[in-house]
Design a protein that fits this description.
The protein has about 230 residues and is an alpha/beta fold. It is built from 10 helices and 9 strands. The chain has one domain: TIM Barrel (Alpha-Beta Barrel). Helix 9 crosses helix 10.
């Protein structure tokens, strides 16, 4: 499996505060069957450049290899929609055309559609992070549909499917999944104890709710296509 949204890099955002915890997160992911992780630190200002993130990923991969943990980490970011658009487009996943976009949790900005269209006009493929946890979408999941086109994708959090964030978010996640509006499932992990890098439980829910093929698409094939810069299904 591939975890395409994980705050595994230390001392860069609200993820692990030291390298030992980052290593333990990688151990947990490996034990769950995750072989690749896209590091997605929060980017809301100019503090960290794409080069900074890549350097940290390279250093972390070197350490994981030394410790014989069979996980490969790739550079990415979770980019706040409020970031300067001219800078926002630099934070793609693994230097591909895919970019993970985060909306505020408490509302859906009025200009969300225009920004997504602008990114698409630049040849990018926006991925909306955890829409099922956005208050506006929880209240009316249909509001998400107006933002989607063939170049805009959705990524829901594994824990949302299992109810870790409450029943309302779980209902919204199931609604989006049943409506075939989910393209990727990721952990959005932040630590070794709270929101850990686990995908297997969510994958099993998708298998039981839809099919094994759908599960494989959401936690493996589609994330692999993103890393390769290919079209996802």
């Amino acid at each position: 499996m591939i975890d395409s949204h994980c705050h595994i890099l230390p001392n860069i955002d609200d993820g692990p505060q030291n390298i030992d915890e980052s290593v333990e997160m990688a151990r947990i992911a490996s034990g769950d069957g995750i072989e690749k992780i896209i590091a997605t630190p929060h980017i809301s200002d100019n503090r960290y450049s794409p080069g900074d993130i890549s350097d940290r990923v390279d250093q972390f991969n070197h350490l994981l290899k030394q410790k014989k943990i069979p996980v490969q980490v790739y550079p990415g970011a979770e980019v706040a929609i409020g970031l300067d658009p001219d800078r926002l487009s630099a934070y793609t996943i693994n230097r591909s055309s895919y970019i993970l976009i985060e909306f505020p949790h408490d509302h859906l900005p009025a200009h969300a559609g225009k920004l997504l269209d602008w990114l698409c006009s630049k040849g990018l493929n926006p991925i909306i992070a955890h829409p099922e946890r956005n208050y506006s979408i929880i209240r009316s999941p249909e509001t998400l549909l107006s933002l989607l086109n063939r170049n805009v994708y959705t990524q829901i959090t594994a824990g949302s499917l299992s109810g870790d964030f409450g029943r309302d978010i779980q209902y919204c996640a199931h609604f989006l999944l049943d409506s075939e509006k989910v393209d990727i499932i990721a952990s959005d992990a932040h630590s070794k104890k709270f929101r850990t890098p686990i995908l297997s439980a969510a994958a099993e829910i998708v298998t039981k709710r839809i099919s094994r093929i759908a599960s494989q698409l959401l936690v493996d094939a589609n994330p692999a296509a993103i890393l390769a810069g290919e079209e996802i299904h």
